[in-house]
Amino acid sequence: MGSKRRLRRMVMDGDVRLWSVHHRHPDCREVLTVHREGGGTLRIVFRPGPGRFVPDGFLHSGQVADDRDGVLNLHLPGAVRQLLDEARAQGLEVPDRGTAEADGWPLFDAVTAEGRA
């Protein structure tokens, strides 16, 4: 298996998206970064909080979870596609240029509540 940190390719409605997952510090967070080929970047950020968990030694890289048994693995293309579809449904999109940032937990809640995860 290749590196989990590499850019991966996904085609959505004829547009190419490149995505990757990283754990960031100093304020611990898991970040799903989605680039539009020839365009901008959307960062979907998951920060830990009450009932919200990111990899910190107990979860595997790329996993985000809540205390209601919801879990997503951000290294899986299907999970990323579900989050991007939900982002679009909520009016979030990868910008044509520049960088936008979104809280990932509302997307997570919608995806896991629908039982799609």
Largest sheet: 5 strands, mixed
Helix content: 10-25%
Summing up helix and strand content along with how strands pair, one would put the structural category as alpha+beta
Order of helices and strands: EEEEEEEHEH
From the structure provided, what is the oligomeric state, counting identical versus distinct chains? single chain
Rg (C-alpha, Å): 13 Å
Number of strands: 8
> Which word captures the global form?
globular
Distance between the termini: 23 Å
Instruction: Indicate the low-confidence ranges by residue numbers.
Output: none
Rounded mean pLDDT is: 89
Strand content: 35-45%
Number of helices: 2
Q: Which strand order spans the largest sheet, edge to edge or round the barrel?
A: 1-2-3-4-8
Overall description:
The chain is built from two helices and eight strands, in the order βββββββαβα. It has 117 residues and is α+β, with helices and mostly antiparallel strands. Strands 1-2-3-4-8 form a five-stranded mixed beta sheet. The protein has a three-stranded antiparallel beta sheet with strand order 5-6-7, covered by helices on one side. A hairpin with a 4-residue loop joins strand 6 and strand 7. Helix 1 packs across helix 2. 25% of the residues are buried.
In short:
The protein is an alpha+beta fold.
Salient structural properties:
117 residues; alpha+beta; three-stranded antiparallel beta sheet; 37% strand; globular
What's the SSE blueprint?
Layout: E1 8-12, E2 15-24, E3 29-36, E4 41-46, E5 52-53, E6 63-66, E7 71-73, H1 77-89, E8 99-103, H2 105-113
Helix pairs in contact: 1-2
